[in-house]
Design brief:
Helix content is about 30%, strand content about 40%. It is of the alpha/beta class and about 350 residues long. The termini are far apart.
Amino acid sequence: MTDELAEELRRFNGVAASLFRAAAAHLEMPATDLHAVDLLASTGPATPGQLADLTGLTTGAVTGMLKRLEDAGLVRRDADPRDARRVIVSLDPDSRRLHEVERVLHAMTEAWAEAAADLDETRAATLLEFLKRCNALSRGEIVRLRASPSPGEETASSPVAGASSGSLNVRGASLLRLLADRTLPELYSAHFDGPAPTVKASRGSITMRYARRIQLLGMGRQSAAITLNGRLPWRISIKGAASMIEADLRDLTLTEFEIDGAASSIDLQLPACTTVVPVRISGGASAIRIRREPGAPAQVHLKGWASKLDVDGQASSNVGNNVWLQSSDYDPSGPYYAIELASSASSVTVERTNAG
């Protein structure tokens, strides 16, 4: 009987997952996004790291998911009132789209409630306790699986070891995702899909270098997802051609950021700043998007050329050759991001995270 129950529970999980996929398809959204909305509705606001633990997704995948949910108006990201450098994700109660999603989720809940309506209180209490234990075991299994590398995936990390600041240098990653986590106990944690780079870490300084022969021969993609300890200030340098660079650094203190190399897509999310922080991009890109937290003014110096340049709504077409623009809250005597674009790009957007 126990084996039969366990097998039926496994089938229930499979059917429930299929039901979620069907509901997501009906709502025209990815199933992982609907899962995240359901988790936020049932457990309340969470950090991106907590969502990664609850969904079983990598931190890089959660970053992309939250961007989609935010663009759809389903969630908002706010600074933690207890720690302004920590991000809290919550559902947007005023979202019309959220009301549509909740109607579908509520219909699913009502169907299960109807199935349990014939149970007496004793049987219902037993079933409730059993499901709570199963949920706790599943959450523990998610954590275990996420801590274990997938087939073909390599990992790396390093202890903080008394470091007071961090420096990250990456060369040759074709797909690069950067995140920050203030709860991370290590100096950094990295996952590599495909050929792994040579990694050296010493006294807060991390260097990751992919073999040049792999880059020249095109031997698979060099994908790296790197999470940095958000309690330390960081200097970040990325060199070499890449197809995509994504960096969500809102839980980080950033002292300097540099990209030197061509890229198809660059998407940066910058934290609030307390000093003048240089951000330099050179090498060419198809699309560059830089978003800043409130309290992070910007001065933009376009040394190259852009088909479209938009700085906080100040839009221009076919511009270049020493163009300067500032955000409306820019003060030369105060903290700000000094953004230098020495490359050419089809589209450059610099905006606040709460913009439109």
